[in-house]
## 1
Amino acid sequence: MAINQTHVHPHYTLPGVMHYLQTEFTKNERDRITWELERSEMKARIAELEGENRDLKHQLNQIQSKAVSAEGETAKKPVPDSLLKSKLAVQENVKEIIYLLKSPNTVNQLESLNSRDAGSDLHDLEKLNMNTPKEEGSAKTNGMDILNNALLNVKPKPKQDSSRPSSPTKVKSLFSTTNKRENNNTISEIHSELPKVDIISSYGDRMALYDADTKSLEIHQVDANMNSKSVKKMSLGQDSNIVKLLWVSTSKFIVIEKSLHLKLFSISTASLISDLDLLQNSDQQFSFSDIINIDFKNKWLLIAGKNKPQIKIWELGNIEATEDVPINIKETYDITHDNDNGGSNDSTDILDCILGITEKSLILLSSNPYQLTIYDFEGKLLQKIDLKIDTILSGKPDEESYHLFLDRKTSKLLIQLSNERLLVYSFDKKKIVLKEQLTPSSTQPIQLNLNDGIIAISYNNGDFEFRNLDDLKPSIDQFVVANINSSESEGPVIFSSNLMVDSTPVLITVNKNNEILLHKIKI
């Protein structure tokens, strides 16, 4: 007799499936945290073994050298065991501290998973990624920085001005403000013999001042007290008409002239090393009026034009040589940016162009539509990013109010749009992560400068403001630079924030009395 068999099918419900997926995802996250812990332990163990290996090699070299020098003499007394034990104990403690500082905060993450309220946050579990820095604090200072600063007896940069003993440096008040006290140790004045200053360029602790009328240049080296430690004076020739000064190293720099000649100068000998005509082998005219930006990195020089629309890149030979040898052009690249709007007759304007974050790449900001385009040096399109702001920024753009600034340390791109709008694009996250609208009371921002994650903003009336690239929020109170602009002055404020003194950015300005004023940007 056959037995009736009924097939029982599992009954699936949406809540049951979601609960199962959430449970499995939670298990996966816990496993991942465990793997991260094991990975950190292995890295710490590898660092420990590498340290022991280096110590053993050092001891072996010392023993061998002592054996050679002490041949024929009596052997020295061995190191006491107590001293060796103390040394090993200190090394172990230091390694343990490094391991604890490098390890992720796993306890808090596990608590968030075990919490009763974690079910509502399971769709936001990407916050548990231990490789992602926190929005505040950890992006700037981590445990290794604290340990290194403690071992080197160096204080980390404070986020606000702290009072210090007065400096013997001759001090002149740079800022006139009522809601923030002056820190005289961070303000200084450097005297220049130039009748006026038209260009300021800085690199490391070196500062270059250029007078376009006398064709004269001064190179200052600024010490820790913000005094001019040494001054080099150079005459660049009466036929020079400089539009850009770019640093190769602390001992050499190049200048770009309106005639598109590139000249390399030596600071040590105060002389011209080489003179190149960038368009000597080019059939296409490239006038100075077409140029919207000039950028230089390593051995690559980029000049972007707005009317072609075309970008030219030169690979410079011998530019990285330590000796004062002439440079040459090894290769020339031409990149054409075309409109691809489905046969539209509307022109695509290049608003700005800079060298990219990777080798042999460039980043281009264009309008119609507003987008970022990344090319390689062969003209191949690598990526196109639509900024989705055409409805906000309508009309023909003003090329002088659109700029790109790249921070290679954090892989972020600062975009200045229509003067007062700021965007931050993250290459790591592949999206725009920050937006900010500057709202000055009476003037429009005219210049931006980015250095070490600090944005220096100059306004028409002489005000300066500093913001962090991490959140675009003001870092310190707004400063008003005294006597920068008078009512008769025309043109932008001449300034630079790329000078570094004791690993701290320094703002350089020139006032109407032709005085060079320095102020440490204490963030």
## 2
Amino acid sequence: MSIPKRILALCLVFAAGIGMGSLSGHFISENSRFETFTEKLFQSEVTSSTLTLHYTLTHPEKKGIKKPEVTLGTALSDPDKTTSLCQEYENKLKSFAYSKLSHENQLTCDMLLLYFHTRAALGKNSILDEPLGPSLGVQAQLPVLLAEYSFHSREDISDYLKLLGTIKPYFQSILKLEKQKSQAGLFMSDTTLDRILKQCRSFIAEPDSNYIDNIFAQKLKTFSTPVLSTQDQQKLCTYHHKLILTEVIPAYQELADGLEQLRGTGKSSRGLAFFDGGREYYLYLLRSQTGTYVPVKRIEQRLSAQLLSDYEQIRSLLKKDPQLLSDLSAYSNELTLTPTQMLEKLPKLMAKDFPQLEKVTYELRSVHPSIKSFLSPAFYLTPPIDTQNPNIIYINDSGRTTSLELFGTLAHEGFPGHLYQTVFFGRTSPSDIRYLVTSSGYVEGWATYVESYGYEYAAALMKDSAAAGNAVRLAWLNRSMNLCIYSLIDIGIHYRGWDSARTAAFLKAFGITSASTAGEIYQYIVETPGNYLKYYWGYLNFLDLKTACQKKLGNDFNLKDFHRKILEIGPVQFPVLEKYMK
């Protein structure tokens, strides 16, 4: 996964209108008018929260953007106002003479039209949005984003310290939303509540040794514009610790206490299908997050076909070599490379399949122990668009993965995954709005698609690469099947209305008989609707696109050129991607 997509999306509230009047004068080209519109749209959206602005731009003043009052934004929104504004934007986009726009602007226009049309269709079902969650929720990701808040100037330090004082009102807006959900019969189950409360309490368990204090002190030591004296550093650290004790921890405690008061007001742990408007909201998630616009039945059919294909391939491999399963255990941990060494190897291994990128810098960091159990095995932190640095990959070394799985994870997060795709797209100099209005299905689908290559590259590093090839192929097919099964369960729970018993029966058919394992899978999918489909349905879209291009071009098909074209188009919904691939 890559962040800060989740929290920035939640903070990205539609601001007031950006001045929809058309520019006058025949000397202004249609492209100029369109680019003026998208730039104003970008400025409106990027200033909606301090985190959004800071993580998007290092030097907003160079784009003529004045920093607004420090804020995290609000979790509350006016559905009618949002719908009206989206329709206003959609009408404005339709007013441009499409044929007079450049190829790049046509692509941006198509992407924005689909985005605003989809967003406008959400309407009052927006109350089903859930900002909280044990692993992907705001309260879980906010500490990481605060820890990574970079200091380029004294103003950044000042903004950061002010930001700590805005957590409480932001959490209060979340509580207000959760109370509205509770009154409407839409509040989370007690099981989900307990998992969120556990995460909150873990973060504030040791107030006098919170890891954000330590990271703040480290950042002050390396701050150089200008260098801070030891005395100034001590004063700032003392003030920072005071804010942790008087603002941050009380904010988390108030959130936990407020949520506790709503205990028992939610339905039993069930999916979206059991809520009014839940199926419609799920379809919205598939379109807005996954970037797909095909009927659910067609998605299920394609997933089932892939599941059968993977199963047949596994059966064929095991028939040829019955020892493959036992060999896999040995090969899974044969790689003795460190994460740093793995990332150094990947660019060379991928050179035959993907366009080369020169001079890509990145940093590897470890997740703090206090939040290891709540975060993914690894994640990529996107850089500001005006500096394209730093590129940071976090490793969660909680010992839950084999060396083969870690290699695949680093291919997903690094090369040729998130980091590579982000840097490649950034070097095409896209319109700024392309960084804010994007498609998670493309982003996560691409990273999952290239992860399959990562497994292939891992085999090449093993002592007997020929023998390792089939074992590693088996490992990827097993991972593909698992993601496919979870994707089918996602639809089953949130669209078809499966309960825990129906889900357990489905898992049992694939050999997953542990009641606790089935229960954990069910609970995670209940809490993260559409999440697996972003990865796996996105992956299948790239896989099918490659198959279609191979069929059309025959011997003229070039894999590296295919990948280059996808990377140049960048993160868009799949109907838009398919249009421009053709």
## 3
Amino acid sequence: MFRTKAQSIRAKAKILFREYCSNSSVHGVRYLSSQEQPGCEKFWWLLVFLVSVGSCALLIQKTYRKWDQTPVIVSFDEKPTRIWQIPLPAVTVCPQTKTRPVWLNFSREHGENIDDKGYIRTDNFLAMVCERIFYHMFYSSYILPNKTGSESYANLIDNMSVPMNDIIDFCYFRSKFTDCKSLFRKTITEEGVCFTFNGLSAKQLLRTGASLPQEDHLMPETSDSIDWTLDQGYSPQSDLSSYPYRTVVSGYSSGLAMNLMSNDHNYDHLCGGPIQVLKVLLHSPVDYPQVSNKFIRVPINQEVTIAVKPQIIVTAESLKNYAPERRQCFFNHERYLKFFRVYTQDNCELECLTNFTLQYCGCVRFSMPRFNRTEVCESNMIECMIRAENELFERDAVERRKGDRNYRTGCNCLPSCTSVQYDAEITQNDFEWVRWVRALKVDVNESHGVYLSRLGIYYKEAQFIASKRSELFGLTDFLANCGGLLGLCMGVSLLSLVELVYFCSVRPFMVRRKERTPMDGKQLPAISFVSIAIGND
């Protein structure tokens, strides 16, 4: 009985298969069930059909892999961007001179503050922010004690620092002279006290409760951005007075120019190095300045001009539905930073280094953003902080090569979907400032040890072409490619697939239902699928 039922099912399936082959729109299938074709021809057509199916599957797999792994293409935007649509770069100026002689003569006291046990005794000395090579040359073999006073390192450095009036003077901004104090704000960095133009305030840059302690809070406090965000740009209500500042015209006269001063009385050749220079960093207004990583040197008695060419990357709205790993960028609302309100790759990298330093050393550098209860590293932890930074990047290079997941990979610091960077073309000439001052009928004595440099920053062109992330392969493109491959290899269309589903599901059900439908009150005799099949054979 079971054998007869199985034979009946096979016979019905055979009939449905022949019916499908006879009526299908798929090319070559009808030759597989034709009674007129000899067996060798059927085998040949079967081989051709299988090769076509295999080739089509392989090509569709490659198309899917491309759609899944590289769905994004970075191309030039369709329309140029005007310079008034983006802010001027934030400019952070850091003097090589870290202290005033009235507080600490570093070169003179070097060696005098070390006792018989190799300890450095002066708190001011411990708070110095010198070049890293200086530490390795002179103090890596010493055991540095903790400071004895209760004042923070940031406050010590602030108290010792040279005032802005002795560093930045004669500011010329957007075709008019401007008080430098209204443009620059004191900022604490790993290089000590610096001065920042066009940076966001600490209130907007750092999260509440995750900023520097109040006594160390030296970021700009009055520079609030109301009409501008990194993702949306300037609002329609903004004007030229909106912060961060922008300009409408390219060229030197519409940018920022300033005189930078150096004084032999303030300069320290041991800590600051053998060359008197100032370090300048151009960065986005939303980036926390990290001067030691990348900077431009402005030597004394030189005029340095920086022609800025913005590099902006925006992301199409259609990519918001993609996972960040597929589009390889984060929108600001997708990636939460516990210290920073605005996500950028540089802010994320700094937060990653801060967290790793805390894990590695149990404390963080005084210049790093942190929670109020986080311990700040003392001077005896300088070696540990340097080792933590080296360890983080060395692990990343070694373990990525092995394919292992490391701490820096876990930070997941992808680029931001909207980013602003500033490329610089630098020119440098001798600055004959003494002759210039004398031409103004001002007496100047070169023996006083005062030096001037001039720095000018401006946009090179009035407009530029931004880059744009957009879909390389959307879902529509993927389906179109699959349809083209199916049509090329097999002559298959969407209706061909529907046809296959129909013969696998609907058609058997309808045939079975027709068999059971009574006719004139009588049940139809079972259609002899078996006999038909046998007859055809």
